[in-house]
Write the structure tokens for this entry.
Amino acid sequence: MEGRERINRLRWRCTRRAMLEMDLLLGEFLDRIYPTLGPAQADAFVVLADMEDLELWPLINGSSECADSVQAEVVALLRNVRVK
Amino acid sequence: MSKQSIPVRKFDAVIVGAGGSGLRAAIQLSEGGLKTAVLSKVFPTRSHTVAAQGGVSASLGNSEEDHWHWHMYDTVKGSDWLGDQDAIEYMCRKAPEVVVELEHFGMPFDRTDEGKIYQRPFGGHMSNFGEKPVRRACAAADRTGHAMLHALYQRNVRANTQFFVEWMALDLIRDESGQVLGVIALEMETGEVVAFHAKATIFATGGAGRIYYSSTNAFINTGDGLGMAARAGIPLEDMEFWQFHPTGVAGAGVLITEGVRGEGGILRNSDNERFMERYAPNAKDLASRDVVSRAMVTEINEGRGCGPNKDFVLLDITHLDPATIMKRLPGIREISIQFAGIDPIQAPIPVVPTCHYQMGGIPTNFKGQVVSADGAPVKGFYAAGEVACASVHGANRLGTNSLLDLLVFGKSSGDSVIEDVASGDVTHRDLPADFAEFTLARLNRLNTQTGGSNVNETRLDLQRTMQKHCGVFRFKDMLAEGVDKIVEIEKAVARTEIKDKSQVWNTARVEALELDNLIEVAKATLVSAEARKESRGAHVRDDAPDTPENPNGRDDVNWHKHTLWQREGSSLSYKPVTMTPLTVETIALKTRSY
């Protein structure tokens, strides 16, 4: 799948989610942070974006921890996203 | 254009939407032996039903005595007597059955020590016809919607329901007689446009809360079912009624719970004044949702809003001990930091009344059959959940009745399909020769538009217009201006241009198509609201105040009726509220007070 298609699919899965909070956070992350990630972190983000909102939200708000270290790095970046 | 112009897939039934009501309907159909396709813009367990946390109501009486008739009374009263009493009786009587069924599907309800479904109190749930609070809400912690979707999805997997994920339905197919014969849909992954030819079509597409600038609804709630129905000549009912929450984060819409004011949070205007002292001297910031929302809008409209555009007020908890905030409101602090860029320990949170739930929708009866203006079922067409208007919520929804609505009417619409297919009432009638013409013309217009309007800017324009002119508190002149503005915005929507013309994963195209649906809902809402010259439930007008003749501004003599908006000519008609329940006596009109 070429770059445009891959990013559009990812955008859809980041901004059409169950919870508004996650649409906002992941959409912002995709625009501002994702382009700066290395390949391993980018892959980890795709895995995180495929999680359901009620799995991912506790990781972001710190009420549960990520087992995978690269995913944990990306979660830390997600935690710092400010939607404004 | 011939019908061979796009591929056709044949099913007994097609369901559009895979949230709670779509999945519940699909169980009936698949287990009933019908070949069923479910189309969804997202994977089913990512539907917005997940966001429903409060619970689902049923008069199980597990904690104390309860009765469906009391639940019915609370629902009629909550609806400000605009709900249809046959549908409300049906829903409340069915509630225990559908909740127990859900338990058997594997729903992990919270339990009592004896192992029964635990029930908790909820606003507006009363015993003995409004006498005292009763515990009626069944929940799975604060994940009720999430748990419900998973239970329903698993049951569908068992029943071999066929899902078409990341497909967007574009238009209804109707023949000359008006019978619905399926939908035309777009597969996002390929860009292919396909007809789903069905004996029966169920819409379960959810609400359209994204018509407002400030909305708690996820981005997915673009009113696709409402747009498709309106374009196909189906009226939309009671679209002026939207439930608002007083405190959403300004700009983002993310909800700040009432618990913040419960812990001592204070609302302030640009003069730093605790303005609720003027509007509700006793309850102050803890006054009811509608009172608080109206006060906030009045402050903003009178120039005492905050920020560069003076378009929000402040929710202040800076006077609370930081340790209390960290202990009692950690999640709210997190939300404020992430979505307002403000640590509420140090500065107040910008908030505005925020759209939450749509009471109106596609008119149906309690069997989930879509009905035309004269009450006759539209053959082959069914709807359930937030997209539908049965009408059980009337002018205002009772808390926890949204999840109940989708279970009861998801099931009843499925049962109606099975019955109508078995009786031969709906069959695979031939598709009209030009069935795809309208949709293909829409797509072609979008693909070839040059010098047109920008989708994001037009959507924002629409959302800001709805927020300003048709929000939680409504004003005669603002409504009239809003109608003119939305007509102008409609012209821009008809000329949207996308730069990306590709077929595969063209999200720009999908967003433009979603905007085609939002505009229909926005028009229906504004035109219906401008016309209804009373206050009732969630529709509150400045020029219809509380008087002895019309308590709370409600005018039963002239306005105790349902609105029907038709896209053709943006015209309105009205139909009576069904005041006769199925088996019990009418719950007679009276003033709604809590």
Q: What stands out?
A: Residues 2-79 of chain A form a domain with the DNA polymerase; domain 1 fold (CATH 1.10.150.250). Residues 28 and 83 of chain A are 7 Å apart (CA to CA). The mean pLDDT of chain A is 93. Chain A has one domain: 2-79.
